[in-house]
Amino acid sequence: KGKTGPNKVMCMGEPGRIQELYGKVTGDKLNDLNIYPSKPTYLEIMPKEASKTSAIEFLCRRFDLQSTEIIAVGDNYNDVDMIKFAGLGVAMGNAPDPVKQSADAVTLSNDEDGVAVVIEKYVLSL
Prior knowledge:
Layout: E1 9-12, H1 15-25, E2 33-39, E3 42-47, H2 52-62, E4 71-74, H3 80-85, E5 88-91, H4 97-102, E6 105-106, H5 114-123
Parallel strand pairs: 4-5, 5-6
Antiparallel strand pairs: 1-3, 2-3
């Protein structure tokens, strides 16, 4: 609290340049940052505490939930941590392969209503 300044830095460029930058800014000295490519042409840099996972952790504390009770659905690199944290982590069908590999399950793409399929399969079937 009381801190000011940007909450995220977004770098945009050609895919090769973004990969080069990503290689240069990742490492032990920057463990307090979340750094990930969100598209081949975007690199996002933000504090560790500014993440989807930290938001889910807040909600777990607020509503007395365990991570095993959480379903997280994501479609890009910035979702991997959240997908791994959740009791059931689901990747969208349009997600890059590394995101799919981090998930417990893969649903249909966003154009095919993949989130609705997850809700029908895992929530409404209870």
